[in-house]
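hey so u asked for the seq, here:
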Amino acid sequence: MRHTLFFMFVLIFAVPGPPEPAIAYFSNVREIRVAQPDRQNFFIVDEEIWNHSRLDLGDLRLYDGESPVQYALSEQHAGISSEEVEAKILNLGLGSMSGRTEFDLDAEGIATYDRIRLRIDAKDYVATAAVAGRNTLGQAPLTALAPSTLYDFTSEKLGSNSVLKLTPSSFRYLHVKLSPGILPKQVKGASIYNLREQQASWTKVGSCSAPQQKQRITTITCDLPAKVPLSRIVFQVDAGQTNFRRTVSVENSKGEGLGGGEISRVRMNRGGTLVTAEELAVNVAGRYDQLTLTVDNADNPPLAIKSVQPLSVERRVYFDPQGKTSLRLYYGDEKLAAPVFDYARFFHLDASASQAELGGGAHNAQYAGRPDDRPWSERHMSVLWVAMLLAVLILAVLAIRGLRSSAVS
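ran it, structure tokens below
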């Protein structure tokens, strides 16, 4: 009897294992037309997929007929990696003939580089920097590298730049000559580094209304698909409007602040040197159905904003078609756990990967819905209570019998 009760309780409270994928459990399906069957392919996750899949995209599955196909999900973020070392400044002083600040940098410790970061203790200036490389200090020949423009617009509140961009180089020594305006004592240090930059890829999401002007404030409303993750918002400002910097704040549909940033454009000519710089995007991460953007113009004329576009970081699904010309993408199973594929663990991006074409989204004709996998106890509460009362009665009867047997003996 005790063993019977034990197994009854195990049956009642047993917890099912993790859900397994099956074509009949996915609500939606799309055809994948492979571009080149003999190499790695990918497709871009679009709004249709976001709207009918899990928020983490963990329920995406590729099938070749009834056979699953492994894949790797990749976010196309911007990537920046750098190796930066402090450079020893040598021979710092004024050029004997030119009267300009000149110095040498020792690039020992870094094999290749394409950037020099100077630390200059000066405000409100524009200077050009001529850079040349050589492998023996103080000896010709010198190889001219790309010139750069340095500036600081503190008074105008338009930012600064102290980085010199070079072609990839490996010279042991670099000779830097600055245009007049920067004194040797204002050069406080330098570092050299190699910047490896990968540009992000973006997908357009939602749309924004035309700007509305009210006194010193410009407001813009953006409507967004609630399930698509937002990454940034890009402004297009008339090309004829220059030398501005504006603060942008962002609120959701409840009026809650989400942060924001600054947009700016600099195009100034100082002493015959043209300085140009532009930043017209603010980062806003999350999922929202509506946003309100506020541009503070302070005491300046409003910006001539031509358009505003929300963007999402592009998500790509990479796979190996293994000679197949078409596959199917299934999605729409909230209970399915995210896959764990060796293909994703050891994923290597093929530089020649081809973009596959997605067909239109459709309801899966084989969809039957996942069966109720809650524990038996949750699905049959009334039966559970009856069983528990019955078990209590049985235990009570057994206890009474035990007491009677003890009394007789």
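The chain has four domains: 2-6+375-408, 20-71+322-360, 81-198, 202-313. DSSP finds five helices and 32 strands in the chain.
lmk if thats what u needed
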